[in-house]
Amino acid sequence: MTLLVVSPDYASHLLPLAAVAAAWRDAGERVVVASGPATAGIVERFGYERVPLTLGRGSNPGVIRAEAQVRAEADSLQGFFDATRRGMVPTLAYQARERLVDLMWRPVEKARETLAVVDAVRPDAVLVDHLAYSARLGLEAGQVPYADVVLGHPTALPVGDEVYGRPPAWPRAFRPDAAALSELDALCRRVADRFTTQWRAAAAQVAGPGAAAGTGVTDAFALHGPLVLFNYPAELTDPARTPLLPPHVHLGAALRDEPADPQVDAWLRDEEPFVYVSLGSFLSVRGDVLARVAAGLRAAGVRAAVACGTTPVDALGPVPAGWLVREHLPQVRLLRRAAVAVTHGGNNSVTEAVATATPMVVLPFSTDQFAGAAALERTGAGVVLDPNRATADELRAAVLAALDPGMPGTAVLRATADAVAADPGPARAFRAVTGAVTGAVTGAVTGAVTGAAAGSAPGATPGLAPVR
């Protein structure tokens, strides 16, 4: 059996997908990853084959630097970073306006390239990052079945009357006024309409004359594959959304094995409790926030491991003896031992912290981080603060509250971690995709897309038969 994994060229996207694909690798199956050059090292470390497929103008091998991007992407990133300093609504509005150029980049060209990869690899099953819209456009137009992996809070796939980009819930620390939220909602709906129009036009070109691909699409952001894999624990989801979801599986988390790190292993020999800090591969640029976090931790008198990313170490202030501070740290390994995690609330950080029963202090900046932080607050698994307003003293108090064994979400965290340990996310995905749980989403895709890859009508439609 051959599994094809399609990912944008970002480490934060490929790492969880690669961890999910490990179930196929460990079963002796062939795994091929289609992604860009920046993440080639990740593919190699997991022992997978690689085929080149660049799905966006930006890339990120682990820590993103605006100066390492092409000019247009660098300008976009700088605009995003600036927006995060102005608050929740300005950031979400900026991201909404950028969505038409960063989520479906060169859609016709990239859709056809995706179909050409499928034709060359001849996979039995396909896993695709939900945000790889140009790739999914090609698969939809070529009628290639795939499993759609949502690497974010489940609201990244809107259902019901939700609109992509407007959080359906937000934590208590954020209280935008009604007029601002109304304007954001209207903007997100306009963007969704324009994005859908773009999707329809591109799908028609890829599928070829006479094809109906894309004609019935009313919201391209709400499209999904035959099976949706949510890289998120069901224990944190809103039960009111469940009846609205398509056929799906909650993976809980996809914890990955990490390479040996002698420095970290030596540091962990000290049994003293510590706090792990990371604002992810993008938001480590917010050195002002990291500096306040460091000040709060110094005031709390706790040991810390800080992944500072693009923020210089000296910008954190005095680093106490016994702290571990580096640009990048093995997150899963440290979370397995950490007493608390301070995080921006990204999907990898949240799912990995929950899967290791690590309580969180969450500082959300953008996109679905607000909905995810609200879920952690609702279940008691995290303390949420506004990163732009939280003082060092408030951060100190939040960390101490999260360190309390009586924290309300302790039972939820332990139960979720136990569930993931008993049935890991990759195993859940493997069963689902091969048809053992929710019905097969694989099919005889080989040979079905040659015509579509060339821009003409596709050949025989691949079925949804189980893997042979």
UniProtKB/TrEMBL annotation:
GO biological process: antibiotic biosynthetic process
Keyword ATP-binding included in the entry's annotation: no
Keyword ATP-binding: no
Sorted UniProt keywords: Transferase
GO molecular function: UDP-glycosyltransferase activity
Gene3D superfamilies listed in its UniProt record: Glycogen Phosphorylase B
Pfam families: UDPGT (PF00201)
PANTHER family the UniProt entry points to: STEROL 3-BETA-GLUCOSYLTRANSFERASE, STEROL 3-BETA-GLUCOSYLTRANSFERASE UGT80A2
Protein name: UDP:flavonoid glycosyltransferase YjiC, YdhE family
Organism: Cellulomonas marina
